[in-house]
Amino acid sequence: MNVVTTKLELITKINRYKERNQTIGFVPTMGYLHEGHMKLLEEARKDNDIVVLSIFVNPLQFGVNEDYDSYPRNQQRDEELAKLSGVDLLFSPSVPEIYPTEPSYTVKVQSRVNVLCGRSRKGHFDGVATILTKLFNLIKPDRAYFGMKDAQQVAVIDGLITEFYFPIELVSVPTIREADGLAKSSRNVKLNEKDRNEAPVIYKSLSNAKNEIAKGERDKEKLKALITTTISQETDGEIDYIEILSYPNLEEIEVIRGKVIIAIAVKFTNARLIDNITIEVK
């Protein structure tokens, strides 16, 4: 595995791959790798000649109440996991390497952001779109891999690739779950024993709604009420939001039809958990 830290080193390696007509699969991350990242790398390894992983804690993604400095980092561990996962090239730049000066240009995301988690994280997806525009231009991947655990991010990236004509295939990878259905997340370690026992109810509530849709229910408000009741009766968690939207456009719908997402966020004692399912409804 090659580890590079500068744009020049990266471009030199990428050009060699391109000269050999090797396909490139790209997995962008902010590091502190976990099982979800490993699954993305596994899928990239299956589909491509070369797997490129980036590790960069992007300051543009952090809002005023989000502590960039305390974001977990473990470069040595990440490099070991990347090597075990078959990564060919790891790009791990410093902040000055990516932003040598205050950015003169950033990407402004106009749609798909004023719902779900984006509603309370103003500017977050602008930061995501800006760094990915830089990385896509540097790496020129054939395919880019993202997890559906953050379905809103996948939707935003889908729009970015479409809007700017990036010749990149977006590969969305299903959410990795624990045996009891809880979506795997680095935040799960913050759950106390009681909350950890209750947290799988989140996915249970989504599955109940999916089952009702399969039986013919199309009333959005009834489905949201069903989810609310399940969470309220079986957990002490506080519901942040429940939304049923078109996907990937993330637009309000009156009748459930076509591809839709049912998404939820629930606050427990020490962690706010998100989950979702997408369904194709005829």
Automatic annotation (TrEMBL):
Gene3D superfamilies cross-referenced by the UniProt entry: HUPs, Pantoate-beta-alanine ligase, C-terminal domain
Pathway the protein acts in: Cofactor biosynthesis; (R)-pantothenate biosynthesis; (R)-pantothenate from (R)-pantoate and beta-alanine: step 1/1
EC number(s) stated in the UniProt entry for this protein: 6.3.2.1
Binding site for ATP: 30-37, 147-150, 176, 184-187
Subcellular location: Cytoplasm
CDD domains xref list: PanC
Matching Pfam families: Pantoate_ligase
Active site residues of this protein: 37 (proton donor)
InterPro entries registered for this protein in UniProt: Cyt_trans-like (IPR004821), Pantoate_ligase (IPR003721), Pantoate_ligase_C (IPR042176), Rossmann-like_a/b/a_fold (IPR014729)
Catalysed reactions listed for this entry: (R)-pantoate + beta-alanine + ATP = (R)-pantothenate + AMP + diphosphate + H(+)
Amino acids binding (R)-pantoate: 61, 153
GO BP annotations listed: pantothenate biosynthetic process
Molecular function GO labels: ATP binding; pantoate-beta-alanine ligase activity
Enzyme class label: ligase
Gene Ontology CC: one annotated term: cytosol
Major localisation: cytoplasm
Family: Belongs to the pantothenate synthetase family.
Quaternary structure (record): Homodimer.
Function: Catalyzes the condensation of pantoate with beta-alanine in an ATP-dependent reaction via a pantoyl-adenylate intermediate.
Protein name per its UniProtKB record: Pantothenate synthetase
Species for this entry: Metabacillus litoralis
UniProt gene name: panC
